[in-house]
Write a structure and sequence with these properties.
The protein starts with 12 loop residues before the first helix and ends with a helix. It contains 19 helices and no strands. Helices cover 80% and strands 0% of the residues. The longest helix has 36 residues, at 13-48. The chain has one domain: Growth Hormone, Chain: A. It is globular.
Length: 430
């Protein structure tokens, strides 16, 4: 082992809880900086004279392509090096690039800045996932990763809330700079207050400092597990619906219901931010309790919550009243990300100690190419195609046609993942 128990910086609960709280703060800034564009994009569209497919490229494929491509080598680095330092460098990089986004003068410059945000954010989650899995034992890992995953929703909350009001009062450029710069302080907090954990200590498993599993071996291992294939596709399709919703909902309410960014940002902060945080944490917590008797509940639960979302997702785009649509959005807002902590915990359970950051990166590669990359772009492109037929409501129908179908497909894969989950976890390498 690369250390002994007396050297363990996370021997007590308070140290573990502090670490996961700080990493959740990092993840919150990750999504504040990412989500900010969604509430600002109507102002940016008007200022820079953009089409919907260009907005979808900014929030989707261009960002996701560099995010997932950079994520693989950074994860390899994290599996053999100091993960704490990588996280600190990552949050500093993406925060600086977010602030720079407020200085751009053209679509191309904004696209380059968002690529910089994507490259920086690629270094956040895989090493953080690996740290959490090393300081929390398997029986409490899903809830720890679910707590960390609440950063998605806290980030959405503050991104919508701060972005909506800052845009209304000061404009979109100032919003980028005010939101981006505090992340530099978070980078220093990570670097100087967190310790690098001992790999494998929470499971009494050993790993040498020289151990390095080839990328191809990790990929082959994951792909050989049928449960992982279904988990990854289920997560990706859920993310297709979830990212498209979070990236386009503000534009939908502004265009179809005439809402202002300040009022809308407040509503969406509560629905997608606070509501989503509750859903993702209790999704992991409840699954852990149910999994004591049957581990398949880690996948059954997100499949069930996804199915519950479907009628609400359809109704949102069919009602005429803005506030009725917002109230209908509460259920999907809470349940969209239930899959996240559970899928991460099961993916880590399938692999060896020095494979975890890379396993997260592979999962996120699949999830983000399909979910973040294709989802918002496809929704924007379909909106442009439908504009001649539906005019200002083209986005409404693009979301209605695409998003419930993606969620239904996700539910099928998450249920199928339960079939081989027990067997695949038992076959995990030591």
């Amino acid at each position: 082992m690369s250390g002994n128990v007396t050297e363990n910086p996370y021997a007590n609960k308070s140290a573990r809880y502090y670490a996961v709280a700080v990493l959740t703060l990092v993840y919150t800034f990750n999504f504040v900086d990412r989500q900010l564009l969604a509430i600002l994009q109507e102002s940016i569209k008007a200022d820079l004279s953009l089409m919907d497919w260009q907005l979808g490229l900014l929030t989707g494929f261009a960002f996701a392509l560099f995010y997932v491509t950079a994520g693989i080598p950074i994860a390899r680095w994290a599996d053999r090096s100091n993960r704490r330092n990588i996280v600190a460098l990552a949050v500093g990089t993406w925060s600086l690039m977010t602030a720079i986004s407020g200085l751009v003068q053209s679509y191309t410059q904004l696209l380059v800045a968002r690529v910089g945000v994507g490259v920086g954010e690629a270094g956040g989650s895989p090493p953080a996932h690996s740290i959490i899995s090393d300081i929390f034992p398997p029986e409490s890992r899903a809830s720890a990763l679910a707590f960390y995953s609440m950063g998605v929703n806290f980030g959405i909350l503050f991104g919508f809330l701060a972005g909506g009001w800052l845009n209304e009062i000061h404009g979109w450029r100032t919003a980028f700079m005010i939101v981006g710069l505090p992340g530099l302080a978070v980078a220093l907090l990570v670097r100087y207050t967190l310790a690098e954990p001992i790999r494998g200590l929470s499971e009494n498993r050993q790993t040498s400092d020289e151990a390095q599993v080839p990328f191809q071996a990790v990929l082959q291992l994951l792909w050989s597990r049928l449960s992982f294939r279904h988990m990854a596709m289920g997560a990706a399709l859920n993310a297709f619906a979830g990212y498209s919703t979070s990236n386009w909902t503000a534009s939908f309410f502004i265009r179809s219901h005439g809402m202002t960014t300040g009022e809308l940002g407040t509503w969406l902060a509560g629905i997608m931010g606070l509501g989503g945080a509750i859903g993702v944490f209790f999704g992991g917590y409840i699954a852990e309790k149910l999994a004591v008797k049957d581990v398949r509940w880690y996948m059954r639960l997100p499949a069930l919550t996804g199915a519950i979302c479907l009628p609400f997702m359809i109704a949102i785009y069919l009602v005429d009243n803005a506030y009725t649509a917002l109230l209908l959005s509460i259920v999907p807002g809470i349940l969209f990300n239930v899959y996240l902590g559970n899928t991460l915990a099961m993916t880590h359970g399938l692999v060896g100690l020095r494979m975890r950051a890379l396993a997260s990166a592979i999962l996120f590669f699949i999830l983000n190419i399909i979910g973040l990359g294709i989802g918002p772009w496809a929704t924007g492109a379909l909106s442009d195609m439908l504009a001649s037929t539906y005019g200002q409501d083209s986005l409404r129908y693009a979301m209605l046609y695409l998003l419930p179908a993606a969620m239904a497909w996700s539910v099928v894969h998450l249920f199928l993942a339960t079939r081989n989950l027990e067997k695949d976890l038992a076959a995990a390498p030591q």
